[in-house]
Every structure is written in structure tokens, then in C-alpha cells.
Write a structure and sequence with these properties.
about 750 residues, alpha/beta, 7-stranded mixed β-barrel
Length: about 750
């Protein structure tokens, strides 16, 4: 067991007194979300003064986890803070830099060669500063965390938007940018807004084709990609308690797709066998001892509308399998409606690739349910009509399903087993079968499906479903095939119809014990960065800005049209190799963004020189070299998606002084604040339409900026006319200090 028992026992012992005090203070019982948050706040907090969605709260997480792509910049910032070691248990996981191409063994070998410099940097920093190191091939961060560190009643943050995966084990697990992680690693609290609470009661029980994935696909369709912003989702009820621990993790993982701060379940008896199966028996014993503290008080389930800001019910008995997409996870429908929609919207019918696994769906239960369909197909003499790619989530899962013959069965029907890494889910997928611009449909059991997300091709339509449905539809080869009702022809020409999948929640013979890829920190060695490196560079402090002089007469770099996610601002895929070199990765800034002032994605016209059809990053660099800052404008939910702070650091590095938008995704707004880029919002959303390509923008009142006090933008149009519009901000006193210092890190090291 890699977790220390004593800190967990100390935390659990504190629950009774802290929660009793909170009940008296509030005059009511508590949800599990409130219990976990309150036990991670300063003990002197007056809970009655915490207004949901308004008040700032300061939390002390128990743990930090970082994946290799985001860890580079976070560790570079930590080194700049000049601390001898991390203040809380911290781990680094090498999962994002492995490109899927030919198969697990060769892909891992290629990654270790290509990324040696970065892996050496991460390992040496981990050893020196006291961070646990999970080497390449050990697995995807969220699966590894689930198997080793996720624990009911605890709190963690992670530098990946799908950190909430651990919420399936009753953890409050929040995705953050690297600068937020550095705060906690340097013994400062994590600051966020007191979240609003969404309660979702699950009744009935999953059966047949319906899987836990269908719950979150239904929720995403109901609430949309911004429906969870500033909120924590708690699942409860008999349906929640009947669901496996790993099934719960699938649901909380994809809570990121509705913008939720996190999602969680209260502790229940289904978590106990998973803790024991993953070598955490002593923690399981503690959870049983303190069970009542680790779930919502009984009155919450009896009268949920009294405790939650929003309340919904989902009947698992009547829930049907869902498919969402393309290009957004909230465009959902039941599988029975898919065929008609393919015709209606002219989606490519052929499934060009079917992909299962990833951090969302690679549990033993997922794999055994999927392979039960493979076994049916083998008996019928069928091979997959679509390329079938399988991504085990961790070395533990890989070795276990290899021992149990499951991997071999996937391969026998034409499947390719990929490395234990993120791979195609984050764009680390080298495709030879499609050229950029070829319109095609893929079906995955992943969690995210923005345009260009999986393979860099804007014409790849990404659809998401459960692993069971993905595998069955791979044998049909068609987006119109409904395995619940439709038949295929077997080897003898007879009708063959799949029976509902079946699987095992946990491996009957236990998980395979082996070297899972973990290295204990030695607290020794040095961290060396080659000054000539193209992939790593030490960080220079961002300059302080004059709140009056520097914010006058700023050109408009671009105005986003439609979605502007972190993938649009800072693409992954081949650009991941520059995640530790801010200047080099800034060459991808806005490459995926749609500019209202130019017909080509990622392009614009230089508003100062008049030069036309240049990459937006090149225009920004020219403005910066000319001593000019600039402003960007956008619409709703800007920065949706990944937690990558590069989407904020690149604009800051390239001269961005402010974003102005209708609304922001939580992590992106926090990342902008950390880097002293002003995230402003239109008071009147119609003012977005007033912004023109050659406007000059002046931000007024920044020398008097204060919490809750609006500022104004003076807009000078090309024809010489001017107008002034009010804009709002959500900066608190701490964040205003970061703004004045030039960044949160500058403030820390001042």
C-alpha cells in the first residue's frame, strides 16, 4: 500500500467534531460534499457566511497528482519557488507523451527514446523534491490514482481536467492548472469559489446493455457542457449504491464534460471490495469504522431539494444506452435514434475506427463486459469490420487481462492493444488510414470529442458511447447498426444477434502482482535543463504591468466565433513535446480557433501593419516585439475542456493583457488569473457584436480595481468613433495582488 495510514486516520477522526460544529452553525444536516470541504478548511471558518457560488474558500488538499504533459510547467514553476521539497504527497505520472501507432510494446519503446529528455527531467525532479514517480507504461494518471490513492473522505487536486475520476471512490478530486498545484505543493491553500451543489438521485439498477457510461452521457445531454460550471455533483440513492466502484469512476470522470468543479459519491459497501482488491485493506477497515461520516446525513436523501441547488432523478431501470457527438459531449441521443440521425444529418455511416479503454473506461468490469461480446462474435465466426483499438488504463489492468486471456481474445478478432497511456484520447494517435480533410466517423468509449481532438483532422466526427456498444458496433461497422435490435450474418449466413454483455466487477483471481512502475523519491540528485533544449526551458518571471499605461490603445488580436476550448487555444497531439518550453509551444497559440475576422482557422490579419492571412500566433509575436499588448474576445464557456494552463500561459507570454467573453470555464478563468491576464465578462452580451477587427481597446479603472467593482472598455473604431462599455470581473483581493505583481508566482516569490 502506497498511502500512509496515519494521516487518513487523523482526518477521519476529525470528521465528527468538525461536522457537529458545522451542523450547529448552519442549523441543518450536511451533504458529503460539505463534510469533505469543511474538514479541509481552516477550523475557524464560519460556515454560515459561505455563500454558494459567491464566497471564496481556502482548502488544504491531502494530495497532488500531475501528468507528464502538465507536470513539466508545474515543476518549472515549483523550482522557481525555491522550496526544498513538496509540502504534501505528490505524484508524477508519465502517460500523455506516448503516441499510439503500431502497438503497446513498440509504441512505448519509441516514446522512451523520443521523450527521454523530458522523462529524465521529470524523474530527477521527482527524486530531488520528494514526488512519487510513475514511469512510462505504468498507466494513465486517473486509473493509477484510482488503484492506489483514491480514498473516501479525502481531497486531492490534479493537473488534469479528468482528476474528478477519483470521485467515484468518494474523494473530492478537482482538476486545476499547474500554478494551483504549485500553491498546494508549497504549503499554500487551494482557493476556489464555494460551489453550488447538484444532487442526482439514481433509482433502480443497471442491467443488460445499459452501463455506468450511459448515466453520464444522459447527464451531459441534460445539463450541457456548461451546466456544471461552479458546481459539484453528488450522486446518491439505491442506484448509486448498487453500482460498482469502477463504474462510479466512469461517471465522475466525465463530469468534467459538463464543466463541474468535480463529482462524487458518498462511501458505500461497493467501495470496500475494490479497496481490498487493490491492496488497501487497512484503509477499507477505516472506512467501515467511520462510514457514517463518509456519506451524506440520512435526511439529505430523504429531502434532497432542501440541500441541493439543483436536483434531478434518473431511473436506471429505464435508462437506454446512449451515444453522444460529434464534436461535443452534450449532443446525445439513445442508440435507437442514431440510425435516423445519421441519414438526417449526413454523418458518415462507416465507422472508420472503434476505440475502447482510456482513463474513463478501462476497468476489469469494462474489459470483461466488452470481451463477452467478442466471445459471442468469435462463435459466430465474425471479425470486427472496423479497426478496433484497445487501451488498458494501467499496467495492473494490462497484466491482469493478459493473464486472463482477454487481450488475446481482442487480438483474435482483429483488435490492436495499445500502450497503457492516453494515446488517441488526447490526440496522440498516428493515423495512416485517413488524410487530413477526409470526412469520417469514429466511435470511442473516451470522454472528450472536440473537433480535431483525437487525430488532428477537423473532419473526423467523434462519437462517444460505452465500451460495450463500441465493441458491438465495430462488428457491424456502421453508425446505423443498433446491437440491441439489429442482426448480422454469421459464418454460415444465418442471422446473428448479440446478447446483452456480461462481466466481472473484480478479477476472480485478483489483480496480477507485478512491478507497476512506481519509484519512491530518494530526496537526492540534481535537476538539469540543457540551455539548448527545444523541449525544456527554465521560466523567466512575467513582467509587472502598469494598470494605466499598459492598457491603453490595445489592438484586437482576434474575436472567437463559436466554441473556443483549451484545445482551440493550445492544441495537444504533436505539440505535447513542447509543453516544457513556453516560447516554443506558444507557436501553436490559437491554431485551432475560429476567428470571426478571417475565414481560415487559426489565421487573422495584423491589425497594425495590415499584413493579411497570418497565423494568429505570428501576429501576436509581432505585436509583442513591437511593444504592444493585445486583447482577445470570445463568447460562452471560453476555455472549456482540458486543464492545460498553457492555454493561459501562452497568451500571457505572447502579450495578451485581457480576455473579454460572455463566460469562462472554471479552470481556464483561474489559470488566466494566475498569470495576470484579466478575464473580463461583458455586462451586456450584445456588446460582443460591437467589436471590430481594427478597434483599439483601452481598459479604464484598473488602477482602482477592487473586488466586485466593474471596469470599463473604451473602444475606438477605425472610423474614429468611440464608445464605452462596462465589463465585469471576479477577481478577489488575492487575485488582484497577482495581477499587480505580474503573476501568482511573482507574488509568491516577492
Amino acid at each position: 500500500m502506497l498511502m500512509e495510514l496515519a494521516p487518513i486516520e487523523k482526518l477521519f477522526k476529525s470528521y465528527a467534531s468538525i461536522c457537529d460544529a458545522a451542523r450547529k452553525n448552519l442549523g441543518r444536516d450536511l451533504t458529503i460534499v460539505e463534510k469533505i470541504l469543511f474538514t479541509h478548511m481552516d477550523p475557524g471558518t464560519d460556515y454560515s457566511k459561505l455563500e454558494r457560488g459567491v464566497s471564496n474558500i481556502f482548502l488544504n488538499p491531502d494530495r497532488v497528482a500531475m501528468q507528464d504533459a502538465t507536470a513539466q510547467m508545474a515543476i518549472l514553476q515549483f523550482i522557481s519557488a525555491k522550496m526544498p521539497k513538496v509540502a504534501v504527497p505528490t505524484t508524477v505520472h508519465c502517460d500523455h507523451l506516448i503516441q499510439a501507432y503500431s502497438g503497446a510494446t513498440t509504441d512505448l519503446q519509441a516514446a522512451e527514446e523520443v521523450n527521454k529528455e523530458v522523462y529524465d527531467f521529470l524523474r530527477s525532479a521527482s527524486m530531488k523534491y520528494g514526488m512519487g514517480f510513475w514511469k512510462p507504461g505504468s498507466g494513465i494518471i486517473h486509473q493509477v490514482v484510482y488503484e492506489n490513492y483514491a480514498c473516501p473522505g479525502t481531497m486531492m487536486i490534479g493537473t488534469d481536467s479528468h482528476t474528478p475520476n477519483a470521485g467515484g471512490m468518494g474523494t473530492i478530486a478537482i482538476g486545476v492548472g499547474g500554478a494551483d498545484a504549485v500553491d498546494v505543493m508549497t504549503n499554500q491553500p487551494f482557493m476556489t469559489k464555494m460551489p453550488k451543489l447538484i444532487g442526482i438521485k439514481l433509482t433502480g439498477q443497471l442491467s443488460g446493455w445499459t452501463a455506468s457510461k450511459d448515466v453520464i452521457l444522459k447527464v451531459a445531454t441534460m445539463l450541457t457542457v456548461k451546466g456544471g460550471t461552479g458546481k459539484i455533483v453528488e450522486y446518491f440513492g439505491e442506484g448509486a449504491r448498487s453500482m460498482s466502484a469502477t463504474g462510479k469512476g466512469t461517471i465522475t470522470n466525465m463530469g468534467a464534460e459538463i464543466g463541474a468543479t468535480t463529482s462524487t459519491f458518498g462511501y458505500d459497501e461497493m467501495m470496500d471490495p475494490y479497496l481490498r482488491a487493490t491492496d488497501r485493506g487497512p484503509i477499507a477497515d477505516l472506512c467501515k469504522q467511520y462510514a457514517d461520516d463518509l456519506r451524506s446525513d440520512p435526511s439529505v436523501e430523504a429531502d434532497p431539494e432542501k440541500y441541493y441547488d439543483e436536483y434531478y432523478e434518473i431511473d436506471l431501470n429505464s435508462l437506454e444506452p446512449h451515444i453522444v457527438g460529434p464534436h461535443t459531449p452534450d449532443l446525445g441521443r439513445e442508440v435507437s435514434a442514431m440510425s435516423a440521425e445519421v441519414d438526417e444529418k449526413d454523418y458518415p455511416e462507416k465507422i472508420s475506427a472503434a476505440l475502447i479503454g482510456s482513463c474513463t473506461n478501462s476497468s476489469y468490469e469494462d474489459m470483461t463486459r466488452a470481451v463477452s461480446l467478442v466471445r459471442q462474435a468469435k462463435i459466430a465466426g465474425l471479425k470486427a469490420k472496423s479497426p478496433l483499438l484497445v487501451t488498458p488504463g494501467s499496467e495492473t489492468i494490462y497484466q491482469t487481462i493478459k493473464r486472463d486471456g482477454i487481450l488475446e481474445e481482442f487480438e483474435e478478432v482483429g483488435g490492436t492493444v495499445l500502450a497503457n497511456a492516453c494515446g488517441p484520447c488526447i490526440g496522440q494517435w498516428k493515423r495512416d488510414d485517413m488524410k487530413k480533410g477526409d470526412k469520417n466517423s469514429i466511435l470511442t468509449s473516451y470522454n472528450r470529442n472536440f473537433a480535431k481532438r483525437n487525430d488532428g483532422n477537423p473532419e473526423t466526427l467523434g462519437f462517444i458511447s460505452s465500451p460495450e456498444l463500441v465493441v458491438a458496433m465495430a462488428f457491424g461497422g456502421s453508425m446505423k447498426f443498433n446491437p440491441l435490435t439489429d442482426s448480422l450474418k454469421d459464418k454460415d449466413g444465418n442471422d446473428f444477434k448479440f446478447q446483452p454483455p456480461e462481466g466481472e466487477v473484480l478479477p476472480p483471481n485478483g489483480y496480477t502482482p507485478q512491478d507497476a512502475g512506481f519509484e519512491i523519491p530518494t530526496m537526492s540528485g540534481e535537476v538539469v535543463i540543457d540551455p539548448a533544449s527545444e523541449r525544456l526551458a527554465a521560466l523567466e518571471p512575467f513582467p509587472k504591468q502598469d494598470p494605466v499605461k499598459d492598457y491603453q490603445d490595445l489592438p484586437v488580436l482576434f474575436k472567437a466565433s463559436g466554441k473556443c476550448t483549451t484545445d482551440h487555444i493550445s492544441q495537444a497531439g504533436p505539440w505535447l513535446k513542447f509543453r516544457g518550453h513556453l516560447d516554443n509551444i506558444s507557436n501553436n497559440m490559437f491554431l485551432g480557433a475560429t476567428n470571426a475576422f478571417h475565414p481560415d482557422t487559426g489565421f487573422g490579419n495584423n491589425p497594425v501593419t495590415g499584413e493579411e492571412s497570418l497565423e494568429l500566433n505570428k501576429i501576436a509575436r509581432n505585436l509583442k516585439e513591437s511593444g504592444l499588448g493585445w486583447v482577445a474576445f470570445a463568447g460562452e464557456n471560453v476555455g472549456e475542456g482540458s486543464s492545460r494552463e498553457h492555454a493561459a500561459m501562452e497568451p500571457r507570454h505572447m502579450g495578451c493583457l485581457a480576455f473579454v467573453a460572455h463566460s469562462y470555464a472554471r479552470i481556464f478563468e483561474a489559470n488566466l488569473k494566475k498569470q495576470a491576464v484579466l478575464p473580463l465578462t461583458f455586462t451586456d452580451k450584445a456588446d460582443y457584436d460591437k467589436i471590430q477587427a481594427k478597434d483599439r481597446i483601452s481598459c479604464e479603472g484598473l488602477d482602482q480595481i477592487a473586488p466586485g467593482k466593474p471596469v470599463s472598455l473604451s473602444i475606438k473604431h477605425e472610423d474614429g468613433s468611440t464608445e464605452t462599455i462596462p465589463v465585469n470581473h471576479t477577481l478577489n483581493d488575492n487575485e488582484i495582488n497577482w495581477f499587480k505583481a505580474g503573476s501568482a508566482l511573482n507574488s509568491l516569490t516577492a
